[in-house]
Amino acid sequence: MTDNIWEDRETPNFEHILELFNNTELGAYLTGHLLLESVLVQLIELKLDDSEKINPFNMSFPNKVKLALNRGLIWQSMADFLIEMNRIRNRLAHRLGEPITFDLVFGLAKVAHLGGVDFSDDTIHSDYQLSQQWYGIQGIIQEIFQNAAQDLSFIIEEHGGEFQFA
Fold first, then answer.
1. DSSP letters along the chain, please?
2. Residue 81 domain-assigned?
3. How many whole angstroms separate alpha carbon 90 and alpha carbon 83?
4. Per-residue model confidence as pLDDT tens for the chain (166 residues)
5. pLDDT tens digits for 75-113?
6. Are 29 and 89 in contact (CB under 8 A)?
7. Contact at 8 Å (CB) between 37 and 60?
8. Which domain holds residue 108?
9. Domain count of the chain?
10. How much is the pTM?
């Protein structure tokens, strides 16, 4: 049984320590996820009344998405994007040495587009080769998270709230 627990995983080594602060893509992805999670909490707060004993910060990310969906704050395809983004985040955060590939982020850009994330340039999610050439992994990560945060902030405003960075 224990023979397979490391299957498809890296064992920790000295290189992981040396590379700790060199993985800008992983840092950007995890920070982007935290940003969207915070915006999602701001959105959920708009539909909570004082009698509810719900603290969105104590909920898992999928439960936050489900609550936002059930309250009519987001639509199904946006929920699908957020869940896929979280699935990737979990894989990256819990598998040492898990690479962030262009295929991975290009696929997420497609899901983001289907979810309603508005990109200023459709190339980012529609043309694999040009997207790789023009944006690369870092550019796509930045575009996904900044545009998704902006779009969620517009939803906050549509529901009478005010998007804010504290």
1. -GGGTTTT-PPP-HHHHHTTTT-HHHHHHHHHHHHHHHHHHHHHHTT--TT----GGGS-HHHHHHHHHHTTSS-HHHHHHHHHHHHHHHHHHHSTT----HHHHHHHHHHHHHTT---S-THHHH-HHHHHHHTHHHHHHHHHHHHHHHHHHHHHHHTT------
2. yes
3. 10
4. 456 776 777 777 777 677 767 789 999 999 999 999 999 999 999 888 878 888 898 999 999 999 999 999 999 999 999 999 999 999 999 998 899 999 999 999 999 999 999 999 999 999 999 999 999 999 999 999 999 999 999 999 999 988 776 5
5. 999 999 999 999 999 999 999 889 999 999 999 999 999
6. yes
7. no
8. 24-158
9. 1
10. 0.89
Both structure tokens of 22: 């060199």
- Quickly tell me which residue has 């040495």 as its tokens: 97
Hey, what amino acid is at 12?
Answer: P
Q: Would 144 be classed as within a structural domain? A: yes
How many angstroms separate the first and last alpha carbons of the chain? 48
Instruction: Enter the tokens of residue 45.
Output: 């707060």
Domain presence at residue 164: no
Taking CA atoms, 24 is separated from 11, 15, 44, in Å, by 21, 16, 30
Write the single-letter amino acid at 72.
G
